[in-house]
Amino acid sequence: MSSTGFLIFETIIKAIVILAVIASLAGLGTYAERKVLAWMQRRVGPQMVGPLGLAQIVADMIKLATKEDLIPANANKLAFMLAPLISVTAAFVALAPVPFLPEFSMFGHTIHPILSDIGVGVLFVLAVSSTCIYGLIIGGLASYNKYSLIASMRAVLQLISFEVINGLSLIPIVMIVGSLSIIDIVNAQSGGIGAWFIWKQPICFIIFLIASFVECNRTPFCLTENDPEIIAGITTAYSGMRFGMFFIAEYANMITYSILMSLLFLGGFNSAWFVPGGVMMILKSSFFFFLFLWTRATFPHLRPDQLMSLCWKVLLPLSLAMIFITGLVLL
């Protein structure tokens, strides 16, 4: 097979693997969240369907696939149907420039576990993942439901505000490395644990971590859907697989940001001591995914005014200060 043919074949296979693996992990994420929340709240969690309740994932998939797909009578049908597609598509496209593991050889070819190593990987991930907001806004507005409408307005409030913080928190990292490529940022941390950017930019890490919770619609920094509410926020009027697609998009975003934080601040797929890089990558990403679940069982939701005060009065000045301080140090 020629090099061009193998490249095309490799790209198609990697795209299929990313879709299959991330979608499967999103399903496993729902099981993991139930188990973690049950463990922290002294409950049992899924245990009746299959060994340890693992078949509960399959049962949920069957339920969502066979449940009646309802569209409200006064809803904008086209927009209503497109909204979950926009969210889930943006969630998966954002994974394109993300390197999952270190490169390895197979059949005499070097395999790069990344779909597309573009030079502006960080910017691409932030830009594409932010388009998930359109799915949330359109879904809320098209539902002809006052609860969905209110939730969509809260989504605009939080996501647009924190997208600014999300980008500003990574500018010091880009200034240090001199590149927007995620691969270059990981390679800049190849000097061992001491070279990780979490030690050089701890405030930027905390800011990006908080912004990641907002981008993934996770407690406590979430306004699109509050757990104490009886309704389901933007997805109030959705059922069946359309409702499931919003769930898949949310968990896919959690996986994306778990991997991204590992790559940008914790050395990514670089090996540490005797632990191979691939294992380190899985461990670090799993920790951040667990952190998303842990906080939901621990902290209450912030009020909209508290979240906005945190964004504009605390995180924005800190982000700008870190950019200024980093610039002075580099000069």
UniProtKB/TrEMBL annotation:
Biological processes, Gene Ontology terms: aerobic respiration
As recorded in UniProt, its EC number(s) are 7.1.1.-
Annotated Gene Ontology cellular components are: plasma membrane
Family that this chain belongs to: Belongs to the complex I subunit 1 family.
NCBIfam families according to UniProt: PRK06076.1-2 (NF004741)
Main subcellular localisation:
membrane
Q: How does it assemble?
A: NDH-1 is composed of 14 different subunits. Subunits NuoA, H, J, K, L, M, N constitute the membrane sector of the complex.
Stated name of the protein: NADH-quinone oxidoreductase subunit H
Organism, by scientific name, is: Campylobacter corcagiensis
